[in-house]
Here is the input.
Amino acid sequence: MSASILTAPSPLDLDYVRSHFPALTQGWTFLDNAGGSQILRPVVERITEFLYDSNVQLGASYAVSQTATARVEQGTAAMATLINAAAAEEVVLGPSSSALFRILAHCLGQTLQPGDEIVVTNCDHEANISPWMELQRLGITVKTWRVNPDTLDLAIADLEALLTSRTRLVAVTHVSNVLGTINPIRQIADRVHAHGALLCVDGVAYAPHRRVDVQALDVDFYVFSLYKVYGPHLAMLYGKREHLLALPGYNHYFVEPTAIPYKFQPGGTSYELSYSAIAIPQYLQTLAQHHLGPAAAATATGQLDQAFALIQDHEAALAERLLSFLRSKPNVRLIGRPEAEATQRVPTIAFTVDGLASDQIPPQIDPHNIGIRSGHFYALRLIEALGLLSQNGVVRVSMVHYNTLTECDRLIQLFDELF
Here is the structure.
């Protein structure tokens, strides 16, 4: 990346961006965003609005219940718009990505036969590994697609060698929450579908940074956490309608097989959190409108694309600022791509330092009101494969679009003094 991008004005009006996040005024710099982003003010306002004005059970005939029902449906529809799903009923809201993966694996597992095969990776968050591994008790064969130890990439050729006529599902991450690498999901989907199998993607580390378009990606299932995309502590599972209809449900026996998404939501979902999700795409649309004015797209989909293009450019500058510093340190090992090429990585940056255990570093940054983190980040299999357990994992700095170059420079100065 050229040096000019480091000094060029941000494509984002950061005062405008940061005004939407009340937590950013409390004097802390949040650089642990891959663990959970700060929440939008309008999200909190929608939570309050639901609880004050429509906090009743859904589906009754009286007016307040009808309002509550409509509001929950609006939240689901907003998520469908955000990811370009074909219909709102393809979106299942739930308490967390981990819970939704387990529900999906439980339901899908009932459709499999002994000897069927599933492929997982060794670089995913454990949420998209363990539920599939546990199906081995049903006689399912689970194979592992391993990161190339030299390039730290998932090679398509290595996947191809694992696929057979018995492959039923491939589970892969869109972005590793340690490596920050963007995997070529559409290419993977094409290979998986050519073998008659399904593709399940963990998009948790991707969705805060880039537009998710499930139709363009041609994924069968896609999961991410809303609380890492500026929203409430909720998650969503996308599934192609034909798959969701065909799967056995996870709800009570009398819930109709055609009742999607409800048949995968025992006890329903959080009403107020579901409703608050409408504020996420609304905020992103306002970014496009604020920055582009008359040039903003006429459609919601177009505005979402424009917003994420602005986010991508700003985040690339953030990533390059930190990566260029880390590259200059001979005692630092970058775990992931060393360049901030926006089509190849997001600004989730992991590293180790010679002579320092990774868990020694964040406590020395904490007193300066900067939040970073160390550990395995639930990608323990990857940390083991890379031989980093003795280092106590990695140090991770994870930035998003509301972070600034000034914040990044403050961290770099502290790092420079420390190692």
In short: The first strand starts at residue 29 and ends at 30. The first helix runs from residue 4 to 7. The CA atoms of residues 82 and 281 lie 6 Å apart.
